[in-house]
Amino acid sequence: MGGLTYIDFLAKFGVGGAHPGGIPLTKNMLTGENITKNTAILDAGCGTGQTTAYLSQQYNANVYGLELNPIMLEKAKTRFETLQLPIQLFQGSIEDIPFEDQTFDIILSESVLAFVNKPTALREFYRVLKSGGRLIANEMTINTKLSPLEEAEIKKFYGLDSLLLEEDWKRILETTGFQNIELQSQPQTMSQGNPAQEFNFSKNFEPELFDILNQHGNIVIKYHDILSYRTIFCTKL
Ligand SMILES: C[S@@+](CC[C@H](N)C(=O)[O-])C[C@H]1O[C@@H](n2cnc3c(N)ncnc32)[C@H](O)[C@@H]1O
User: Fold this and answer.
1) Closest residue CA from atom 10 of ligand 1
2) Tens digit of pLDDT for each residue in 58-115?
3) What sign for the dihedral angle of Cα 44, 47, 51, 52?
4) What are the Cα distances from residue 213, in Å, to 7, 107, 191?
5) Is residue 61 a contact partner of residue 36, using CB atoms and an 8 Å limit?
6) Is 6 near ligand 1, meaning CB less than 6 Å away?
7) What would the pLDDT profile of 135-153 be if each residue is shown by its tens digit?
8) Element (H or E) spanning 79, and its range?
9) Residue 29 Cα, ligand 1 centroid: separation in angstroms?
10) What number is the average pLDDT over the span 175-180?
11) Measured from the CB, is residue 8 less than 6 Å from ligand 1?
C-alpha cells in the first residue's frame, strides 16, 4: 500500500457519509434529541462535512466541525462555503480537543472513535460537553471475539489500536463517567454499504487507493457476521 491508509483513501476519494448507515441513519439518530438554534453541536471528525452541513441546514444550530486530515478539511470548507453555511471548522484531534471545558450541548461523532485512542478521546468528549450534554456516536463494534490473526488483519487494515465488543464500549463509556448509556444495533450491515454515499475526488490520487477500496470490500464481506457497528447514546450528567 506504500504507506497509504484507509483514511487516505476516504480523504482522496472524498467519501461523504463515511459511516455505516450513511446520512439516513444520522437523521434517524438525531430525531430523539432536543436541538434548537441555540444548541452548540460539535461534529467530531467531520470528514468532508456531509453531516455537519445537515446539522446547520436542518436545525440552524451553532455547528462546529473538527477534523484532523487536511484533505478532508479542505473538502469540508469548500462544501460549507458553497452552501453558505455558518459552520465553524477547526483542525485538530479528538484526542486533544481545541475547546474549553463545557462548550457543547451535543457531540456527534460518526466512525471516528474507532480510529483513535478511545479512552483518551472519550475523556476529551466528556470534558468539552456541558452538564446534561449528549454524546451520539456510530462506531465499529465486533459481534463476537475474533481469533488473534483475524483481529490483527482488521486492525492493520483500518489502523486501529483495538476492536471493541458492545460490552467493551459500555465499560469505557461508564469508566469515563457517561450515564444513560444506550447502544443499539442496526438492521443495515456494513457489507450492504451506504445508500447515500457521495464522492468528491481529489484531482490527483494514487492508483493504489483502488487496492484499499478493494481490500475494504473484501474485509467487510469476509467478516460480515462479526464486523459490525453500534449507535451509541449517552449523557454527561
Ligand atoms: C470514517 S471517517 C468518518 C468521517 C465523517 N464522520 C463521516 O461520517 O463522513 C473518519 C474520519 O475521522 C477523521 N479522524 C481520524 N482521526 C482523527 C482524530 N484524531 N481527530 C479528528 N478526526 C480524526 C478522519 O480524518 C476521517 O475524516
Assistant:
1) 112
2) 999 999 999 999 999 999 999 999 999 999 999 999 999 999 999 999 999 999 999 9
3) positive
4) 11, 29, 13
5) yes
6) no
7) 999 999 999 999 999 999 9
8) helix 70-82
9) 18
10) 98
11) no
Give residue 119 CA to ligand 1 midpoint distance, Å: 16
CATH classification of 6-235 is 3.40.50.150, yes or no? yes
C-alpha cell at 164: 471493541
What ligand 1 atom has the least distance to the C-alpha of 43? Answer: 6
133 C-beta closer than 6 A to ligand 1: no
- Predicted confidence band of residue 2 (pLDDT cuts 50, 70, 90): low
Q: In this structure, what DSSP letter does residue 216 have?
A: H
Exposure of 104 in the CB half-sphere (CA atoms within 13 A): 27
Which of 15, 27, 112, 128 maximizes ligand 1 atoms within 8 Å of its Cβ, making it the mutation to test the pocket? 112
Closest to 66 (Cα-Cα) out of 106, 34, 28, 98: 98
Does residue 20 have its Cβ closer than 6 Å to ligand 1? no
- Domain positions in the chain: 6-235
One-letter amino acid identity for 227? L
For residue 7, give the nearest of 52, 95, 65, 71 by alpha carbon.
Answer: 71
Say which residue the cell 471475539 belongs to.
Answer: 145
Cα 164 to averaged position of ligand 1 atoms, centre (Å): 18
Closest residue to atom 3 of ligand 1, CA basis: 18
